[in-house]
Structure formats: C-alpha cells, structure tokens
C-alpha cells in the first residue's frame, strides 16, 4: 500500500439552521408574517387610532377611507383598530392552546414509554381512540360541558389536540428508543427516568417543535371557528372569528367587514404553516426541496 | 389481511365503548347542577319538576347504575328525549344524519378530484410555472379558514352573482357548502399527491419505463398514478372524519339541515340528552365510515391483502 494519503475535501460547512430557515423563501415569508403579528400584538394598543371597543368612533358601516382604514362596523367601531387588537388575542390563543396540548401530550407519551408493557399500550390505545373522535368533536364536547367563553374555547381546543401530540411524541420516542445510543445509555446503567428525560426528550424535541409550530395555526383556526359559531369569544371582544360572525349580517352593505378579519386569520395561519414547513426542512435536510 | 381488519374493527368497537362511557360522564363534569342549567331558560320550573327530571335522566342514582341504564336503553335504540320540545333524540338525529353524510361525501369527491388532478399536473410539470402556481395556491388554500371561505363564496356566488342559493337543504343548495368544505381539503390532497408521485417517479420501475422511451405522461398515468395514490387512500379515512368535523361549522353557515346544526343549537340550549346523542352518533358514523374506507383500501392495494 502506498503512503499516499487520500485527500478528502472537507465537506462544505453547513450554514446554521436559522440561516437555512431564512434563506428558504417560505421560511422568510413565514417569519415576516409572524413578526408582523408579534409587532401588532405588542404595540397594537399604541398604534391604533381608536379604542377597539369604542362605539361610534365614526358613523356605522363606513367604507374604508383614510380616517377609517378598514371602515367601521355596525356600531361605528373602527375596524382597523379591532383587527389590530385581535392580533394579541389570537397570538395568546395559539400559544396557550398549543402550550397545553404540547406539554400534556409530551407527558402522556413519556409516561407511556416509561411504563412499557400493557400499561403503556393501554394509554396509547386510549389516545388512538380519542384521536379518532376528531378534535372538533372533543372541543365541542368540552365547550358543551364548560359553557361558551374564549377561555373555555382555548381550553377545549388545547384538550382536543392532546391525543395528536401524544401520538406524535410517542412515535418519535419509539424510533429514538430503538437507536444504538439509547441502548448504550441503557447498558451503561441509565434508568428509565434518566433515559426518558436526558436522552429521549431532547432528541424528539426538534420534531415536536416543528409539529407545534404548525399546531399553532390549527389551534388558532379551531378557536376562531368556535368563536364564529358563538361558542368562544363573546361580544364586544375584538376576536377575528367573532368579528366575521358579526359581519355576516352586513354582507351586502359592508363586505369589507368580512374581508379584513378573515384575511388576518388566513395570513397568521399561513405564517405559522410556512415557518413550520421551513423549520422542518432546516432541521431535517433530507426532506429539503420536497 | 385478517389481522388488519380485526385490528381496525377492534379499535372501532373500543372507540364506541369509550364514547358511551364519556357520554355518560359528560353530564357529571358540568360545573354546577346540570338539570338547573338545562332548565335555566324555561320559566316556571318548580323544584318538584327538577326532581322529576333528575329521576327521569337517572341522575339520582350511582354512576355505574346510570351507565347500565344508558347502555340498556341504547340497546333498544332509545337515547332519551330532548329537553326542548320533549322529542325522542335518536329519530331526530337519524333524520338529519343523511344530510351531513351527503355533504361530507360531496366535499370528499371535490377534494379528491381537484386534489389528485392538481397534484398530478404539478408532478407532471415539476418545476414549471404551473407547478409553482398550483402549489402556492395549495399552501394558501390550507391557510384559509373554512368559515371565511364559506362566507366569501356566499357573497360572490350567492349574493352578488346570485347563481346559487345561499342556504337551505337540497341539491343546488349543496354546491356552496360542499365547495367550502372540499376546497381546503383539496389543497391538502394536492400537496400529498404531488409528493407521493414525485417519490414514485424516482423509483427504478418508473425510470426504466422512461428509459425505454415512454413519454412522461404515459409513464405517469400507467405506472406512477396508482402507487402514487396509496398515501392519499391511507389518509382518506381520517380526511372523512375531518370533513364530518368541518361539516358542523359549514352547516351552520349555510343553514344546511344536518346534525352539526342540530348540535350547535343543542349546545346553546344546554340540551344534554341531545348533545349526548349527537356525540354518540357522530363518533359511530366516523368509526363506520373509516372502517369502510379501510376495507376499500384493501380492495385497491393488493400489497395490503398479502400481508
């Protein structure tokens, strides 16, 4: 054998994930939309020309103009101020609901992995059953029990999504559990708790964060739908779903009232979806370009 | 194949069993006194009335006895009577169920036809402007809330153009609600279908067919389409469940006389027997239809039969 050393070019250094995320057009647009939402949620109060609940800020059902960018609603409230104020509610709704289902789902999945054997299987079968109920049915049942309010709607949507997060986390954890590093940890004497918390949890986190990012849009859509039906936010809250329900009666006279809250929901949902997609591609390069 | 069917059947039966338990417990987790809440809107209800109703609903007995009574009555097709109007619950729901199933099925057809069509064209013209356009539309389509899409369709086609009726139950009335429910799901199907077809195209049998000189379109229709549809077929059961869930919202927009509209008014009126009946019937329909779709999948995919 010759002494020639095989020279291998160093693989080009991968850009950090955040750079990859923002370089993808979807990721950049998604991040921009979320930043816009965040900005409106944080500084909306300071920016709005009128209080979102102030009646007769202008005459009722005014068309969009410079004085009222999105027009006024049936009570003469400024629609632009209301849409902007809705950003904070929507962001809170998405984060609280997902926070609930994400953490509860993770706990259930980890318990199922820890309690291997029939107990773990029973827990996951129960999750399968709940999952096949569909989240809409669970959310409606929760609202039927708790009564209609925005808090209850958020709680209902959060509870309804627990089976989804539990199943996703459980599936991811089982894959990791079968990998050599987990076996090595077990052989080295790691107990089940240590294995779950120190090894499985950190390794399923990237997948779960991607799922949760997209989950925010599902939660926002579901809560807005409940509010639209009258089972969530109650008047005079500037909640986008509720605003759409109100705008229905003035469809012919004031169609712009239907345009802006709907557009706000769609752009928010689009933002979280695009960001989630791009995050997945950035974290898992094998899937890029699909 | 036997195991596949047995597994699905087992899960379905388990789902219905859990539903009966959940529905019995439902009324007990209501904060406060459910009977007083139910009758809060009716005037002139005396304490004696309340006690009588509590006895009729079996709420004055232990939970296990209640569950036994509930299942016993269920076996005879009796789901109790509604609080408002004192009508038997089951016939009321079964009367409306076909409308909901029809709406969900129509939406499913729209989602499949548009979704598979768009996914196919997108995969066929991968990287072209058409592909980019279709997929951008699909990404947007997933983000649009159904209730907003419904209102917009109503405004454009029902009010402005006046081509279609905006409410009620009937065949021309079906178009707008079915589109509302179907379009968003078409976007999901399109994305899934495109990805699956592109995956299949990269496999050797498809590349070999191309290498033999078969035009791309023929390779796609003859060789790639069917295996490319497998993930779509696998998702169909779940898609249908989502359609049923979405139907609840859409029925309320278009005053479509299905169980979703009944359910929302029942929730508003706190009519718990009706809510219980709705949950049970909804869950059972989802279980039965998903099972049928799984069986259909066995018929479509010979590889599943061999397992």
Question: What is the compact description of this entry?
Answer:
The complex is a heterodimer of chains A (290) and B (307). In chain A, 70% of the residues lie in helices and 0% in strands.
Explain how this protein is built.
Chain A is mainly alpha-helical and 290 residues long. Chain A is 70% helix and 0% strand. In chain A, helix 3 runs parallel beside helix 6, helix 3 runs parallel beside helix 11 and helix 5 packs antiparallel against helix 6. The N and C termini of chain B lie close together (6 Å). In chain B, helix 5 crosses helix 11, helix 8 crosses helix 10 and helix 12 packs antiparallel against helix 13. Chain B contains 14 helices and no strands. Chains A and B meet through helix 4, helix 5, helix 9, helix 10 and helix 11 of A and helix 1, helix 6, helix 7, helix 11 and helix 12 of B.
When the domains of chain A are counted, the total is: 1
Q: Biggest interface pair, residues each?
A: A-B, 45 and 48 residues
Strands of chain B, count: 0
Profile the largest sheet of chain A.
Answer: none
Question: Helices and strands of chain B, in N-to-C order?
Answer: HHHHHHHHHHHHHH
So, the CATH homologous superfamily of chain A? Answer: MetI-like
Cα-based radius of gyration of chain A, to the nearest Å: 24 Å
Distance between the termini of chain A: 44 Å
Number of DSSP helices of chain A? 11
* Helix content bin of chain A: 55-70%
The helicity of chain B comes to over 70%
Quaternary structure state of the chains depicted: heterodimer
